[in-house]
Design a protein that fits this description.
Blueprint (H helix, E strand, L loop, with lengths): L4 H17 L4 H8 L3 H13 L3 E3 L5 E3 L1 H23 L4 H14 L2 H14 L7
Antiparallel strand pairs: 1-2
Helix pairs in contact: 1-2, 1-4, 2-3, 4-5
Length: 128
Amino acid sequence: MKVQESAEDYLESILILKEKKGLVRSIDVVHHMGYSKPSVSRAMSLLRENGYVEMDKEGFLTLTEAGMTIASRIYERHRLLTQWLSELGVSPEVAAEDACRIEHDISEETFLRLKEHIAKNEGKGGGA
C-alpha cells in the first residue's frame, strides 16, 4: 500500500491532532501543518475519495481503518527516528525534520532492523 508522501503527512497530522485534542477539523490541520485552507481542503477531499478519512456533518475528521494503518505506521517511524537521531546527538529540531524526510523512504525491512537494534541497545549508552 503505497501512498504519496503528502498524503502520509496529512494522515499522520490528523492522528497527532486526534491524540492531542480528541476532535479534529480541517482548520486544525491548517494550523498544525502551516498550509493554506484551500490546500488542506483539497487534500481532505482526496483523502475522503480514497477512503482514508471520513468527515461528519459537523466537519470533524476521522481516520478510516486504512487511514489509521498508514498514519500509525508513519507516526511510529517518525517517533523512533526522531528519538534515535536525538540520541546520536542531533538537535531536537533537526532530528524531527530529518525523521520526517526519512520516515517516508526507508524500507519496511530496514525500519524493522533499526527498531530491533535500538531496542536491543537501549540502556547501553544510547540507541546507536
